[in-house]
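Hey, resending since the last one bounced:
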Amino acid sequence: MNRTTKIILTVLLILVLARLALPYFVTNYVNKVLADIEGYTGSIDDVDISLYRGAYQIHGLELFSVQDEIKTPFVAIKTIDLSVEWKALFDGAVVGEVLLLNPELNFAAAPASGEVQTGEENDWTKTVTDLIPLQINRFEINNGKISYIDNYVEPKVDIYFNEFNAVATNLNNSTDSQEDLPSNLKVNSLSIGNGRLVATADLNILKEVPDFDLNVSFEDVNIPALNDFFKAYAGVDAESGSFNFYTEVALIDKELNGYFKPLTKDLKVLKWSQEEEKFFGKVWEGIVGLAGNIIENHGKDQVGTKVPISGNIENFEVGVWKSIIELLKNAYFAPLKGEIDKSINPDSVKKDSKEPDEKKDDKVLGIF
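The structure tokens again:
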């Protein structure tokens, strides 16, 4: 065996051994990252390496709150795929992409304090960047679920979004786009009560305070499907009705402009046929139902209002009086349309921010 052959065989042997040892070292590294998460403890089942893709996969990740009384995992993800985004290489950028398969995010309540695990203790941006050393340019969620769970009230509460899919692209602006908002986000999901959530946004997350232009519609939620939530926290239940929600919000250079528009249709709160309900519970349900009936637009069987928000994010205002006016207008004059108004965009934020302070204050309060 000549010297060249020995060198080639030695290099091949080193590569094979390195490949066999790599999952072990990557697993230790991932566990170290999980151990550094503030307020949570985590574990994984396995790690796979895909050298030909420049990728690795984390399987069976679970994160639990350090509060012993909360038994539901805060995060549970079947597979996390972290890799080089090869498409961006054609634009001359070396960036990464993250794919989450079947992730679950659970906001679970504690039994005694009622506090909810929200993850606010930790800087999750740092956690993700620790797991992938490249700047992330593409982020995707496939078939996720987001839940609010409270097993310590009666009845137990479990409300959720499932079939949650989201794609965020060009986050690092690898295409060198000259647009003010070069990144894009698309979200769609179903909810308890068969509601349909659709959200789209253009973003610039490269700024210290990211700019964005966001549109959200959440439609046709069957309100009786939420009765466990209503009974547990408000002492009422619904016999029928649907809920819709629309919002447009734009944030440019820390200036915010937008609105929230919640609408309910055919809402009936009382269920007189349930003999097991207590008398005072029925009285409370009757009061809630009467209030809704007073402000309902009977031509459309609809209750709703439009809540404007505007101002600098460090001191933005909610248009309380204008919201009340919109509620009364919907009840007695012109019903609100069940759709996005297409009235908010980055230009509207810039225009609003140039108005004199006195006029802006009046607009916020809904006086004019």
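Residues 234 and 284 are 9 Å apart (CA to CA).

Sorry for the duplicate.
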